[in-house]
Amino acid sequence: MPRVFSGIQPTGAPHIGNYFGAMQNYVTLGEQFGKNSLYCVVDLHAITNPAASDPRELAGRTFDMAVANFAAGLDPAKVVFFAQSHVPEHQELSWVFTCLTPVGELERMTQYKDKAAQYESVPSGLLMYPVLMAADILLYKADTVPVGDDQTQHIELTREIARKFNHHYGETFPEPKAVYNQGAVRVPGVDGHGKMSKSKGEASTIGILEPLDSIWQKLRAAPTDPQRVRRTDPGNPEVCLIFDYHKLFSDLDTIQLVDVGCRTAGIGCVDCKKKLMEGVTAHLEPLQERAEGLRADPDYVRDALRQGAQEARAIAAPIMDEVRHKVGFLKL
Ligand code: TYM
User: Fold this and answer.
1) pTM for the complete prediction?
2) Interface predicted TM-score (ipTM) of this complex, two decimals
3) In the annotation, is 177 catalytic?
């Protein structure tokens, strides 16, 4: 049976890119593979980003990320859901992998280059980010990793690290594969500047737990086809991010209606956005209600995380023992 692993950073509120790109697949694979699917709030990764690691906020964000995933349909009784810092073996395996990974390979990672360019002094944790990610996945010998397409290069490196370990120390790890949610590999930001991203801040994102009136304000202001200047101009839905969002939130009839309507100037951008908002509301309102319920019961969330960490450690411990043995650490 496949073993599934994925992680999500508590660097900000989860947005519709995380939701459609990854979280929906967590739920689908969780239903298929039960306790053989592991999901982790990666708080160790979060502190590679100094801007998102305020110690007064990190614990709350980790809690909120659990709430968001449970509200989105992940049932912690059926899958393994935990926080990364509660399973110290992640760091131990990460160190072994660090010693196998050339600095040059890490410096070539696109996300590293993009993020490092923002700092005068680059934290070395940022360079090691993908090594820790490989440790997350391989600590459970996972072979299936639901992610958005921005993580493709990191999964490639994970495969490379698995190959290298197997070569040095003997066959141990599988070479994991990324699985994508085909319709949503890269959800665009609502500001119209590239991918939606937590690290770009609130202006780029539509949070899945964001109040609906705030979402509407952002959609109302969002750019559409720049060639469509007047209401009577025909537009091109293929270059409009509102149409991208329709494909995520609206039913097929509505998608067809706005597609044809836009091309023939039969529908204006404001009405098209209102139609989108109906889909957004239908989708997110029940999710937000579930999140409210979960927030009102923090003990349930904490107990679920405690239980999840125990379940994760039970899988990780023998694999880590095997690694210690193969690497040659003295056993007493
Ligand atoms: P994070 O928290 O940045 O993103 C969580 C997931 O959301 C996907 N994603 C998107 N998908 C489509 N469109 C977007 N605009 C968009 N933005 C984000 C990401 O691809 C990701 O799947 N490095 C990981 C965290 C991680 C991890 C792991 C993942 C740590 N260890 C082990 C898998 C396995 C990340 O980027 O998280």
Assistant:
1) 0.96
2) 0.99
3) no
